Structures
1.
Amino acid sequence: MDGRLRWVLLAYRLPREPSTPRIGVWRQLRRLGVGQIADGVVALPLEARTREQFDWLAQDVIDHGGEATVWLAEPGSAADARALAGAMAASVALEYRRLIAEAAAQAGASEASHRRTVGRLRRELRRIGSRDYFPSEITRRAHAAVEALGQTIEEAAS
Amino acid sequence: MRWATRRGCHVDRASCAWLIRRFIDRDAEFVFVDDPDEVPPDATPFDMLGAALSHHEGGCSFETFLSRYRLADPALVQIGRIIHEADLADEQYDAPEAVGLDVLVRGLSMTLDDHAVLEVTGPLFDGLYAFKQRARMLGREPA
């Protein structure tokens, strides 16, 4: 990973109660695949879209009586940035591994179940891909696994 | 009237601009800024942090416009769901059009400046609106 990569940070604090907005924010952060820098400080690689997502999340937090600010940042040390990116990649890799295992478990299933699974796994792949900021070998393997599953359907149909 | 939004228009801002021109202010003039502080005093900001016409209650700016201006046309509500998913992708709605629309508008924002993006996407949203109205009439998507 490039140690000079710029980041966008969201610093936020939400009242402990009610819990619904807290859960909503937590869910959004999970969907975005943020890196956790400290309690209440999360990061994403800086891109037009990631910055915008943090702007909206900040607005959401403020609308619910919390405090939130968005910052553009450069890491003070390349090692810290690598560690952050590494943690983010590891969390995505876990999701990819689960997906690869599911694809493998489809061997020998009926064609109908096969079709449903391929559709679901493709959607899941897209979901994970949207928070995979540092694609690696496991990204390629997950795509290959789902692709291969799709191929077996085509072969069965022809 | 003058309207201001952030530079680098993607799908939410482009669709809001279309909505403004077509349903709210035919002679709308658009100004693009980098920071909320740069919004001219006579301009109404939208799809910007801190603006009333922006993301609220988990909805995108297009949806905020629909409720603020009481635009209840079902075809517009449908488009609102597509924009919501294109912009937020939080799977609140089933809008398979969203992924393609988002990619198309993001691509345009790479090759055109903001004024040109609005010029090009205007007819695109006109078409989407016509399609959704027709679908509404037929009770199904036009084949």
2.
Amino acid sequence: MTRFAPVLVLAALATPGMPVLAEEVSRRIEVDPAGQVEISNVAGSVVVTGWNRPEVQVTGELGDGVEKLEFTRQGELTRIRVVLPKVSHRGGSSDLEIRIPARSSLTIGAVSADIKVAGVEGVQRLQTVSGELVTSVGKEDVECKTVSGDLTVNGRGERGLLTLNTVSGDATVTRVAGEINANTVSGELRIEAVQAQRSRLRSTSGDLSLRAALAPGARIDAESISGNVELLLQGETDAEFDVSSFNGDIDNCFGPKASRTDEYAPGRELRFRQGDGSSRVRIKTLNGDIRLCRP
Amino acid sequence: MTTGSDGSGHRNQSDADARLAAALARLPRAVEPPHDLWPRIAAAIEPATESRSKVSPGRPWLWQLAAALVLVVTSSAITAALLQREPARAPVADAAPRDPVGVRRAAFPADYAPGPEYHAARQQMLDALARRLDQLPPETRVVIAGNLAEIRRGADKIAAALAEQPGDPLLEELLLNAYQDELAMLANVDQLTRGTGARSAADSKVTL
């Protein structure tokens, strides 16, 4: 068998469409400085960094069993795709380092690949099933989705729209501002916002934590079935609060205590106004405890 | 009341009692209201009674649910149409609902049971997801199935509480959102596994 091995390797390399052994890649093309970049990689890692050149550069290593790397540009759209053969029992784990113009819009799809993005100012739409996802955000909209992968989002205090969805993955968010929509089933959401304008947080059993200063006229809505909800409000708080839980405890540092909704039922609710009441805070749980306090 | 030592106090007491008894005897046995108040009372009660009898406590909520489902199904259909390049599937029959990812349906109180449209949409999503799940690593399949079950358990808890306290607005809202969360999660996972990266995985039958 061993004497046939070189022949088999040569045959594999010579046959179009056949998977190849691990391969280093280094390619670069000129692109629109504010165009769109789409990246697809099943397994391994994708690291994307924004730079000031009107070019996209891909370096890294394609894993065993990868058919090819598609790297194409059509108008404003640049596509980078790790292509696996139709039938493959190998992972095709590929590690890519990609530089794109900082103002590009970015879309990344992965299965188990980790995603890391830094220095990209355009819209981001990032998703990985089980990989870890780390990104930085500015003014533009950012959407991150995972099933079991954990999310980390670091902001610069600029207002934008951040949308997070996980199934069991945890999400950690720091220094964001503007609108935050986050949803998880059993993951834990920990969000620190410089200033929250609108936030809608939902979980089934995962705990939710939001530490934020409320912008004037802010709207905060948090809901969980059995997860605990913690809201830590920084600075002056001018808000009306509507807090209720069917079975959970309500702890409020701002003064008023929760009361029973019914003499014979377990529900508890807390409604009060703090300051001029320009913002609205609404928290609902079935069994989860609620804590409303200052940091 | 004071009582004199010569017994005059007792006489005064007796006289007073007699006058009080006589006055009481002159009072009418029943007092009729100046006019019949009942028609106004009945009129005030009637509309509320009628509205309660015509609309069950859960019904406005069901309209919201129906609207939410239409929205979810419509957006999912648009997403599927944009992303899916496979041949269209035959409509899913709801006669014998299948649960390909092993997630049972919760037992909801009658007033809060979602309609057949919900079950059809859910079934369609589960079927689509089941095909995608086959392409995913076993541990991811376990995570998805486990979390769908988590949502179901949550909905079960709400449903059980609603059975005890029908009409509770907090519970109704939570249950509606649990339905929406389940469908949203199915749509999200389907999209995640259907996306560019997952397409490579799915099409390639990758074992990761």
